[in-house]
Task: structure prediction
Amino acid sequence: MKTAAAWYRKPSYSPNQHRVNDAAIMDAAIIRLEQRGWHVLRLSEAEAEAGARPEVDCHLNMCQGPQALEALELLEQEGALMINRPSSALACHRHRLVRRLAGSGLAFPETIILSTSPRAEAEIKQAGRHQWPSLVWVKRGDVHAERTDDVVQVPPSNLFDTLRAFAARGIERVAVQAHVAGPVIKFYGVAQSRLFRYYGADGGPLAPPPEVEEERLRALAFGAAECLGLEVFGGDVAVPSPDRPVLIDLNDWPSFAPFRDEAANAIATLVHQSSTIGVVT
Result:
């Protein structure tokens, strides 16, 4: 019998409705694996932080916090099969993500990482004098979001005050990203095109999506995932024109809420096939 460890995300990394949806996609993937004869251990991010080391054929990793991921990374370094790999999930923390994507050749807007420390005031003021568009996005520089004000849109003139507000909450660095005009598309994927779905952020999954060249969108999404080594991923793309999608965010193991059944099947198939040969295919 094949065995797996399913590492559930800590609730603080699943704000608002994501708390239920994040758990639901892991539950659904586990059910599909159990239907294939797998035995699956359900474990928490807190248990990963505490150093739990189950001996299993595959790890399903939804953790996002650095302490848990660094602990699980030791298993990865020992050769454990992990989807997503902890090193890839750590690469999604924005201060790493920005640097990785900036040198990838993929369409990605100008983005800089800034410290929120008062000692970095000169750097912050210099960034404020930069020739930004009329609006910029300020995003916490580590995990993607714990609450709605972890990502805010402001005019460059408000940059200093915004960073002070992040600092007051204990957030040590932020990503400042140029705004890209155009509708936003949310996308979801599983490695090797086992799943690719998208919809407009404004209209939702039931409305027609914004006009976009789907092959360019797909290539951008899977190219970004490959750049970080992600097998289960999602993100956001701005579309200033149909032939020019621009990646504005990428994250590991989203909730797949509108496509949960399809995603659970795709993830279970990925795990099952990968465990057969010992590598992610």
Q: What stands out?
A: The mean pLDDT is 91. DSSP finds nine helices and twelve strands in the chain.
